[in-house]
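Troubleshooting log. The previous run stalled partway through. Resubmitting the same two chains, unchanged.
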Amino acid sequence: MIEYRIDKRSGVATYMQIIQQTRQALRLGLLVPGDRLPTAREVVEATAVNPNTVLKAYRELEREGLVEAKRGLGTFVRRSLATAQTAPGSPLRLELAAWMDRAHHAGLSREDVDALYGDVREERYPTGEGQF
Amino acid sequence: MDSALSAHRLVKSYRGKRALDGCEFAVPEGAVTALVGPNGAGKSTLLALAAGLLKPSSGELRVFGERPTGRTHPQVGYLAQNRPLYGRLTVAETLRLGRAFNQRWAQRRAVQVLDQAEVPLDARVHTLSEGARTQVGIALALGREPDLLLLDEPLSALDPLARDETLRLLMGEVADRGMTLVMSSHLLSDLHDVCDHLVLLIGGAVRLTGPIEDLLAEHRVLVGPASRAASVDGVVQASSTERQATLLVRGESVPEGWAGEQPTLEALVLGYLRAARAR
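Second attempt completed without errors. Output:
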């Protein structure tokens, strides 16, 4: 089960934050097929958001074929977004971890790392290609 | 979707002065609506009409398809802004009144609300803080297990923690029972995180209403050369410096030479409020 962290100051719509965090968890293998997403009730209890917003996010994820609502039971993961490359222990991930160790060693702050990573990502993955 | 609450050419006058002047809106079942507007815009009058405590001067108001008939609809809960409670009763006695006056009464739910807010049941109501009185009022309203809950300025007296807990509780009712919720506030920031519908009331008239997401998608904030501001269509509100104009427009197109983006809800509401003031 995952827990959503809703940042009300981020400027990103709440339902979009739920969609993004779900995709992220699917990508990282934190959610796998068969897992149940928290019910709207559970999300509301944790973060005081509008349950209609949660359901709207789930409908969008369902439209994308990632999850499936089962009446009276909840919403379940249908498809994973994790690949061998993004799972824990994968070579790419280990390389990135090693790179980050070197960055840390070189005295880079968290913001420095984010900026550097973001910059290179922009270069290699210009926005407009793919999504999120 | 059916409307839980709707108004058509709704007018309410007090001694010849119009508090509501031709209101049109519809709130679908299950929606969480922010009723927003400056002080004196008619928000409390509108909620009191919906609660059946006032009669329209003309036009109509419907609650689950029916016109209120001089008493509160059995499916409706209402908390007035002045929190009408008997100061000399204890909280427990207040709940007992609630049980006596209502055919449908969920004592457990009412007590749960007060437990969560840490309001002692044996305290006399007049000894409670304004925030705690609000919680008693909400407990009374939720004890009716309403399908439509009308709350007049529910958050104004609450500290941030109580505010968060109250919203959580109300959102829980929406999640569990599909309750329709209408909350008024003169502060949009109180409500904009949790609402999916908006009714913006200014000077007794509804200036803007609908699903918040649609409203945002239908508007743009345009920034561009002040010299060409006059040629832009659909301007709701404009402000400008010598060279640069910032326009709130209704419409999705962005004219050439302008930068445009969707407004935030706050910018949208402020734009309409400023436009009304300038008129």
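Takeaways: The longest strand of chain A covers residues 67-70. Residues 14-77 of chain A form a domain with the Arc Repressor Mutant, subunit A fold (CATH 1.10.10.10).
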